[in-house]
Amino acid sequence: MSITAERHIQLLENASNLAREAAEFALAHGIIRYVDGGGVTHLPLSLVPWKAESSFVEETRELTVLYNDLYHRVAQDTDFLSRHLGTARSADEFIAHLFQALEQERPGKPALYLNRNDCMPASTPTGVWPKQVEMNLMASALGEASAKVYEMHRYLYRHNPLAANLVDNSAGEGLTWALNEGYRAIGNPGVVLYLVPDGEPNAFGQRISEVRLHRLYGVPTARTNLETLGREGELRDGVLYFRDEPVAIAYFRSGYAPHHYPNEYAWKARQLIEASTAVSVPNARTQLANTKMIQLKLARRELLEQFVSPEVADRLLKSMVGFANLGQEIEWHGQKAPARELALANPDAWVLKPHREGGGNNYFGDQMVAKLGSITEREAEAFILMEKIVQDPFRSVRLVNHEPVPCECFTEMGFFGLAYYPDVEREPVFNQARGYLLRTKDTSMDEGLVLGGFSFLDAAVV
Ligand code: ADP
Ligand code: MG
User: Fold this and answer.
1) The pTM is what?
2) Using a 6 Å cutoff on CB, does residue 413 contact ligand 1?
3) Up-side HSE of residue 234: CA atoms within 13 Å toward CB?
4) What SS3 state is found at 437?
5) What pLDDT score does 1 carry?
6) How many angstroms does the Cα of residue 257 sit away from the middle of ligand 2?
């Protein structure tokens, strides 16, 4: 079918109107980031929502609640963490520091979680099914911006029936709701202290959250980085004080990367928080449970069943792909060999991951081959191999720097998981999935960071 010149012009005009409406919505609603030099721009976002299978969305949502509970139990099990992270602890200073913070822990504190369960719509022999990339128990970001992108799609498509089938997203409200519920349940007087990195390009979501916490719930907040807290924070009768205010909750929006700890003062802040009555979101044990090594161990049924029933284990295992230590002998598609050799022979089927969070750390394809070639026996302990999740590409249009760009894409959906446990033994006061981050990216991109420019914010329609 040929397209007339007039029709072509009309389509282009419609696209540029849509692009402009989207960009202005984004700027007006805080779907923005800092750029170098201090200005702001809109975050990359989709102009067309992703058509999802409702069974994928529902299972991803339900899995989130199960994973919240699993990781809570794992985090409480100090023996399990010590046993399975023992080698990593001696090979990796970052992990060693987290164990040192854990040693300071004041016993019997409640646990509050603002997690995100990142899953991809994997194509499997029985259809599309969620396969988990990872659970984020630390500084889960972009809840505010992704909820606003959902609202943007509802607005852009207000005259189109698809608007009614968008998957509701109230992630931003949910995260603040959980902070407030936790704050009330904990009952400590004082502030919610936002721990943020210096020069945070993504400060706007945090600001919206702080304002909402204050305005809707009357909860006082403060903001600093780890180093400053380490220098200025002090314990008075077990209560952490920062600039003469008691801290009720320490809410980490940094602390996952080594550069957030420029010196020992930043690690001292971790120790102060652990030793105090302040509830740490997350605490050091949770961050240890969140390592790739523990993710790998939990993919083994006998270890998983230490924490969940066989029925729940079935369901969780169905959401996992293969994991291996580099030297581990594994059976994969009928071949039996050390995992490192299998990955070298099948570079597009495996991902090499260090014990790092925050994106941009993994090795894919040729880079993985090069890295695997240079890793020494001792360094090998600091990496894991994960089977690559395979999904079918789809068409989308992203808006980057105000320009619409058509693309062939993959995507990744993470429901936010909100949970509060008053103590180790008891049932949660709440444990729920609310709102999601949908990150779509060009198929040529391996990583999924929005702020790193790899992916763009999206909304799901069923
Ligand atoms: P980080 O802790 O740095 O966020 P992740 O494990 O989440 O590391 O990996 C970063 C990104 O790399 C993911 O968001 C995803 O886009 C991609 N990725 C990671 N693991 C896989 C995998 N097994 N298959 C396909 N893509 C993956
Ligand atoms: Mg991740």
Assistant:
1) 0.96
2) no
3) 5
4) strand
5) 54
6) 12
